[in-house]
């Protein structure tokens, strides 16, 4: 199957699908404490519509699907969708990003449906700091979910940490989860989108220095652990790896292979920009798969060359919060 390429010649094989704008946390870089104005349920893509778009995407060479939110596990019967997506010819992997609060309760159903990997968003292991960042309780449930997931052979488990904690010692505490478990810890530079614009920025260099001050020099790990841009490192005696996703200090736009589908059916080709195409309207107007395919092809061809987060004024810059665009 030929992989679709954008106007820069980049192959696009990775589709991130937001299932909902709802979330049971209120993380400081994602949404305000009072929450956001939620979309009415009839504005959200149905599972059937998601499956149709992913099926068309697969014919264009997209092979990996990541389910996101909001918090995807607050939507009913996610495992049913996973099973259907896994049955699409050409789809090789279906993974999910979650805050982990509901993970343990749903884990067995997700794995039975064929889920290939889970990314858990967790920025600290300190209970008070967790409550400050998420504005909710639930740390124990998240840790139990991670530990349960790590016991499933073949299920890739990664922790995504946005380093916004005021306690840098938390970085080493998180890394300890990878010592005896097959869990990879990734540090993700905060994106200057929505509420992330108002938070202090901590670069890969700074976080790496903190970790090496505790554990000594880390060795680059070159074997692939996914299809994304993460740069991984080894620590002696650790079962899991340590990774960095650094869109700001280590810009990786030249190799970007991903596109996004929001919960309301908007197809986005770059996280920073609001431009894209409304696939929900195409579907609900009764258009054919051929029309849907052409719309996706056109959007991908015009995928921006790169983000420009360091520039002060950007045309068509995304104004919605991360929970609304499925970041």
Kindly report the spatial arrangement of strands forming the biggest sheet: 7-8-9-6-5-4-3-2-1-10-11-12
**What spatial form do the alpha-carbon principal axes imply?**
globular
Sheet with the most strands, sense and barrel status: 12 strands, mixed
Number of helices: 10
Describe the model.
The chain has 327 residues and is an alpha/beta fold. The protein has 10 helices and 12 strands. The protein has helices at residues 47-59, 78-86, 103-112, 127-134, 139-149, 169-175, 204-215, 279-284, 289-301, 322-325, and strands at residues 14-18, 64-68, 93-98, 117-121, 156-161, 183-188, 219-221, 231-234, 242-245, 258-261, 266-268, 276-278. It has a 12-stranded mixed β-sheet with strand order 7-8-9-6-5-4-3-2-1-10-11-12. The radius of gyration is 19 Å and the shape is globular.
What does this entry show, briefly?
The chain is α/β, with parallel strands linked by helices and 327 residues long. The protein has ten helices and twelve strands.
Annotation keywords:
alpha/beta; 327 residues; twelve-stranded mixed sheet; 17% strand; 10 helices; globular; single chain
